[in-house]
């Protein structure tokens, strides 16, 4: 049986930043693959390259060397406009802070990115309702962010990330601002959604207990990707 094509592949990634103290090497010959429906952890200390790898994978930054493939297509050298189009259609983002629009309710926060992506309002509303239901938030659909708890706000942000039916979700400390009990339930909702939707998820986290619940864990050492580990 042939190996499936990864939805995301990074090969030979190099990233160096210029600082007052000189060149700062963040990623050295980094590589990884991500497949549909799996939730993969990205673990390493601050400065190890987690955020840089996420930014490169999400087409927010270009590597200094190496290649980025989406669905087997080399997208490394695409124009900014082409990269923006791919981000809208293929990639969802979840951050530590929810970044919801405060003047809109939960439902509209999920509808808006769909409208920007060209979806009809009728279909966007139906999809928002479906995603809110999957997050257990049907009764909170018309509440603004300030009327929601921290966990509820992050569930809305997760639902928003899935709104345009991406193939990849990139999450940077998605539960880092929550208490342990809320973090656990929010991560469960996130991982259930990724698997149910068949979306590949790459999750940067400092929470080792959370990482152990993922399908695989990618670790860093000296700015290299050092290990793929099955979750304990």
UniProtKB/TrEMBL annotation:
Claim: Nucleotide-binding is one of the keywords in the record: yes
Cited InterPro entries: AAA+_ATPase, ABC_transporter-like_ATP-bd, ABC_transporter-like_CS, ABC_transpr_LolD-like, MacB-like_ATP-bd, P-loop_NTPase
Keyword Transport among UniProt keywords: yes
GO MF terms, alphabetically ordered: ATP binding
Keywords from the UniProt entry: ATP-binding, Nucleotide-binding, Transport
Entries under SMART domains matching the protein: AAA (SM00382)
Residue ranges occupied by any ABC transporter domain in the UniProt entry: 8-232
CDD domains associated with the record: ABC_MJ0796_LolCDE_FtsE
Xref: Pfam families: ABC_tran
UniProt superkingdom: Bacteria
Family: Belongs to the ABC transporter superfamily.
Identification of the protein by name: ABC transporter ATP-binding protein
């Amino acid at each position: 049986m042939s190996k499936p094509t990864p939805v995301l592949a990074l090969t030979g990634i190099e990233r160096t930043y210029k600082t007052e103290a000189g060149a700062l090497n963040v990623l050295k010959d980094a590589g990884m693959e991500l497949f549909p429906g799996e939730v993969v952890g990205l673990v390493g200390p601050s400065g190890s390259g987690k955020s840089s790898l996420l930014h490169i994978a999400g087409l927010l930054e270009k590597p200094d060397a190496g290649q980025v493939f989406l669905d087997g297509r080399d997208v490394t050298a695409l124009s900014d406009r082409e990269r923006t189009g791919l981000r809208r259609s293929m990639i969802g983002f979840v951050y530590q802070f929810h970044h919801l629009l405060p003047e809109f309710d939960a439902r509209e926060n999920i509808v808006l990115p769909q409208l920007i992506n060209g979806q009809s309002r009728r279909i966007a509303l139906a999809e928002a309702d479906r995603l809110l239901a999957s997050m257990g938030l049907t009764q909170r659909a018309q509440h603004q962010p300030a009327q929601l708890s921290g966990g509820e706000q992050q569930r809305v942000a997760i639902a928003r990330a899935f709104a345009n039916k991406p193939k990849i979700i990139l999450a940077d400390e998605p539960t880092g601002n929550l208490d342990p009990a809320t973090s656990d339930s929010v991560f469960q909702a996130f991982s259930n959604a990724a698997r149910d939707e068949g979306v590949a998820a790459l999750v940067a986290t400092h929470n080792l207990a959370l990482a152990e619940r993922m399908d695989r864990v990618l670790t860093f050492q000296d700015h290299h990707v050092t290990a793929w580990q099955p979750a304990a």
